[in-house]
Write a structure and sequence with these properties.
alpha/beta, 6-stranded parallel sheet, about 35% helix, elongated
């Protein structure tokens, strides 16, 4: 991949950049601007060099229709505050407003087109339809920069197809993400500990397959842990269970033993009779039990205090740690402690600690941790997992061939 440092004569150059500004909103208020902040080094480099910058980005899933709920207006406002310069927001993506807004840019100025996912062909499976849309995006610039790591695993018009039409470069964010992921997959410093959480084993099958070959220890928490426990013959009450993958988990446990690897599972859990997810309230009382003592009518909602110590001990002695997926229903205070303990342990790592984006990154910030307490917080949970699965990511592959 060519770096933006290789772009010659930025002054007056028209640059189209793909960013990932898919930020969480409460109404029209951004509740976590981490992805916007992550784009600042690249944007400042281009703007300070006098380029005319047009940003393509998405928010949510408007499914090819204009929906004010998914407007990038809050993003334009916050980006302008962080850059310390105005960000012109076009009222459309490739229509008259976008063309007028881009044409009006002076050297060192920036414009943001509306949500690219308002365009039906942005995510089309039809190669020709995507290519036609990408050609319209390409009219806005002489050079393309990709800096939205959270979408590089998608073959979309503003990610993949436009890079085939213009000289293309990787922004600083994408370069950093790839460098970190290479450090995890190519001769990582050991001990190498991988921490996986989240709800379903099925979501992580391929990454478990690949990382069991590389990691020394696999720490499994969150909802997916109950399928592993069931694979050991432990009854898990009404805890979340991926019944289709019990035998798969049994195979992982056997493979790990045969290879001299360790899979750490919870030894105790916080349980409750139920949850009201909409109201974010626990139904009934919260208690802590050993994993083999979960009542039939209750379910595990978070790892317990003994498990927190067990998991933290494995993490803190590691030289390299990758974490993806919370340990419990962290959005509810009663079940946030396990995830908080994992985050705290990562801050104590004397080596490379990587938070793999998605819910894990959101949890860290919600629980009061700052980004600089970790070695790296990825901006792309899905992209980082697919990279760790060993997949080719279209948005990166197209840069390498450009």
């Amino acid at each position: 991949m060519k770096s933006i440092d290789e772009i010659t004569d930025l002054l007056g150059k028209r640059i189209v950049i793909r960013c990932d500004f898919n930020v969480p909103l409460s109404g029209d208020v951004i509740t976590d601007d981490g992805r916007i902040r992550a784009a600042l080094p690249t944007l400042n480099k281009l703007l300070d060099g006098g380029a005319k910058v047009t940003v393509l980005a998405h928010l949510g899933r408007p499914k090819g229709e204009v929906n004010p709920k998914y407007s990038l207006a809050p993003v334009a406002k916050r980006l302008g505050e962080l850059l310390g310069r105005p960000v012109a927001l076009a009222a459309d993506v490739i229509g008259p407003s976008a063309h007028e807004t881009v044409a009006a840019l002076a050297d060192g100025q920036i414009a943001l087109c509306e949500n690219v996912r308002y365009e039906p062909d942005e995510e089309s499976k039809d190669d020709a339809a995507r290519a036609a849309l990408a050609a319209k995006y390409a009219e806005f610039g002489d050079v393309f920069v990709t800096d939205g790591f959270g979408v590089v695993h998608r073959k979309q018009a503003s990610v993949y197809d436009i890079a085939k039409l213009l000289p293309s470069f990787a922004g600083y964010l994408v370069q950093k993400e790839v460098d970190v992921l290479k450090a995890l997959t190519v001769d990582p410093k050991r001990p190498f500990v991988v921490v996986l959480g989240g709800a379903k084993v099925a979501d992580k099958l391929a990454v478990i397959d690949n990382l069991l070959k590389i990691a020394d220890t696999l720490v499994v928490g969150g909802g997916m842990a109950y399928t592993f426990l069931k694979a050991q013959g432990i009854e898990v009450g009404n805890s979340i269970l991926d019944a289709d993958n019990i035998e798969t988990c049994k195979g992982y446990l056997e493979s790990a033993r045969a290879a001299g690897k360790t899979i750490l599972l919870p030894v105790d859990v916080r349980i409750a009779p139920g949850m009201d997810f909409d109201a974010r309230q626990v139904i009934g009382d919260v208690s802590v039990v050993a994993v083999d003592a979960i009542p039939a009518d209750q379910g595990g909602m978070d790892i317990g205090p003994a498990t927190e110590k067990l998991f933290a001990g494995a993490i803190e002695q590691a030289a390299t740690v990758f974490w993806n997926g919370p340990m419990g229903v962290f959005e509810i205070p009663a079940f946030a402690q396990g995830t908080k303990a994992i985050a705290q342990a990562l801050t104590q790592v004397n080596g490379l600690s990587v938070v793999g984006g998605g819910d894990s990154a959101a949890a860290c910030r919600q629980l009061g941790f700052s980004d600089d307490q970790f070695g790296h917080i990825s901006t792309g949970g899905g992209a980082s997992l697919e990279y760790l699965e060993g997949k080719d990511l279209p948005g990166l592959a197209v840069l390498e061939g450009n």
